[in-house]
Amino acid sequence: METIEQVFSEIKKKDEAIGAFLSFDMKDGEKQREEAESSKGSLAGISMGIKDNIAVKGQPLTCASKMLKTHRASYDATAIERLRKAGAWFVGKTNMDEFAMGGSTENSAFQQTKNPVNHDYVPGGSSGGSAAAVAAGMVSAALGTDTGGSIRQPAAYCGIVGLKPTYGRVSRYGLVAFGSSFDQIGPMTQTVEECEQLFSVIAGADEKDPTCTGEGYQIQKERSDFTTLRVGLVRGIEKMGIEESVLAAYRDLVQEFQEAGALVEEVEFALPSEAVSVYYVLTSAEASSNLGRFDGIRYGLKGRGSSVEEEMRASRSQGFGLEVKRRVLFGTHVLSAGYQDQVYKKAHLYRATLKKRMEVLFQSYDLFLMPTTPTPAFRLGDHSDDPMGMYLEDAFTVPASLTGIPALSIPYAKSEKGLPIGMQIMAAHGQEEMIFEVLKGLEAKNGIFGRRG
Amino acid sequence: MYDIVIGLEIHVEMKTQTKLFCGCSTKFGAAPNTQVCPICLGLPGTLPQVNKEAVSLAIRAGGVFGSKIQPISQFSRKNYMYPDLPKAYQITQYQEPICTDGGIEIMRDGQRVMIHLERIHMEEDPGKLMHPEYEHFSLADYNRSGIPLIEIVTKPDLQSPEEAVEFLKALRAQLDFAGISDCRMDQGSMRCDANISLKEPGTEVLGTRVEIKNINSFREVQKALEKEVKRQSDLLRFGEGDKIVQETRKWDAGKGRTIPMRSKEDAEDYRFFDDPDLPVIQLTQEQIDAAWVDLPTETAIQRRERFQKCYSLNLDEATKLTEDAVLARLMDQAGQGHSDPRKLATWILTEGLRLYRSGEGFRVDASTLLALIEKIESGELSHSAAKQVFEVLWEKGATIDETIADLGLKQNSDQNELTALIAKIVGENPKAVEEIKSGNGKAFGFLMGAVMKATRGAANPKIAKSLIEAEIDKVN
Q1: Residues facing A72 on adjacent strands
Q2: What are the beta bridge partners of residue B69?
Q3: Are B441 and B469 in contact (CB under 8 A)?
Q4: Is the pTM for the entire model greater than 0.95?
Q5: Which chain B residues contact residue A206 at CB under 8 A?
Q6: What ipTM did this prediction achieve?
Q7: Are A408 and A424 in contact (CB under 8 A)?
Q8: What distance in Å separates the CA atoms of residue A413 and residue B149, rounded to the nearest whole number?
């Protein structure tokens, strides 16, 4: 058996080309692994990478920001506590877009992560480090966080499975908040089965998070009868700027459902063009409040100045990157007197309406299908000066985030360039069970997703 | 003369064991930053958990003041940056407070009048900053960060600085009596901001309103408001065009004046919004009923009037006793059925109050107090000996008889022993004896004092007196 040094040196060697990890837990590595391997839990010995905005006691918690470069977590997040108990061990912390704001992991203050499939391409974001670490086989699984698509989009770009759970089903305790009413921690794995297994460990109410009241999760049996399954599709999705290879993959998946015997129907569900704007208004508003605590007074980077105000200003000027500053200022603006009613409250209302529409939709359908992203991964640097272009990559992931429903991305096909293409399966609030049982049913018929062809 | 219009906003620290959103202790006076955890320090990734005890006490406060309890209320974030605020927002209730309406009675021109409440809402306290003199740094103590408060907001019903103080006393008595807060302004567990404006008598139009912050005792409330009335009426009368501006002013107790803090123009924009980390609070009737168990039914004024009547007390005595829940309860426990409750009240307000004010709690219970007074009445203890016993009981908590024995204070009625002692004292003080014989009564007191001193107050004064007289008679 390999020694812990060998394990780490192998991971590090792989990571030199990819840059998925921001830090490794060398000090506790041996102890962690021993405990994990002697565990009788369902995840005994599983190695994991953890996105660097989730607290693992004693390990760095930087959120890929200069602001928290020196910060270490003094406690375990609830999800980490549960994984630890089940026998997982944590190799280290993975790269991300600073404070989870971005769609390519190019907004990390520390390093660039490359897509393991093709190093000229981005791994996606903001959980790009976690996706790359799993895709490259450096760890068995990873945790990411999803606010508007930050698990599903990098999973799609790197060719792995990623789940954004129902809002309130996985505790957010220990997750550094970005958009509190959106953020969810979720598993990123090679296969659907592993994803379900991880989810069953981290799901369930937590008294440390009053918004986490959802039920625990039991592993589901695969579905064999598809004739009672009703699947919804967005009518006119072809005209939404989707790349041809992605569209072709989408049609294949739809056909796979039909052949299995499911009822597949197009629904009048115009993907609201405002959804992305509403998402940015609400998450930025919450972010402006959530990030206020980073003022250099108690921890993290400390700027110098001759008054408290100057010191706070210096800390933030030096500590936050451009994208973070952009969103904090935007969020402050939409919450301020005079704009709150015009912008913030309208966005709130819109969100409530969308939630209602989703509820109605799921009265008629068990699942809803969409590509995870309109295109496969883009080249490093392609959207660096184009935040709006990057924001629009979220168009298909944002609806599930706004409404809090579960959504899972599976690796479904490859483009001509060999880049992974992901498909997204959504279900009603709290219905992860439905997603997993159906996908496992399809795998039983046609083979494991991501390992076909 | 102008009419005075005052509204108060009072922050009261609730008497919970733990903080509003975490399990840290709320005990006052601990070393700085020893009662903190990742949650009340707002460390990245932490989330608040609502303290049920605090919610229950807030509902109880609503019950005491006849407020409506809102079945659905919510926490909001009040965003502002200050080093004592770890999250850069304070969790408070904004649009949907837990209680609305209600009122507190005070006396105006011999009549009871109701001072109406706008709302009572819950919020967390920020930490505390200390600015050491002659240093270029400040220190932050987060022990207070997250302590549960209720903010009680009145309608502008108060008409004078005296009424404001009377209102605060009634409020404090009720919160104290219902076990919601001990309301100690000196420890910051009760703090008061005041809104004040003046208007021409007879008009309905309110004048420009000024808010005064940072007032930390009843005396200062009165002083600050009086000073502000004077400042505003001077401006109205002799301002030569200078107007009262709508602003927030700070009370500087040292200099005895209010100073401007911020004007309406640079008022802070708190960017309130519903806290997404905390779901709405939904109350059931059972929760409300549970919070109202043993809710005091008497108002502060009613209690004072009952004390005056039932215990034959004057207004001042009744006020002092009912302003404090501990004293009021003690009086009620001991006074029921006591033949001379006023004597009891006097003892509580003199000997009791002296020790009570210097420490924590009233450390002698009602039955012990009654037994002690009984001993004075039966002549077993002199008044001065009883005082000594009382002090020891207070400190050590032994029984009365043990204490009397320990101190050797049992009244000495032993004729032989006293006769010998008094003969000696009289013999040693011929001058005093001479004076007594020439009709100077004071000298007798001197001899009596000497006897008491020698017996440490234990001599039975009646017996001692007759023995001294007998001894003097023997001297020719």
Answers
A1: A60
A2: B99
A3: no
A4: no
A5: none
A6: 0.95
A7: yes
A8: 57
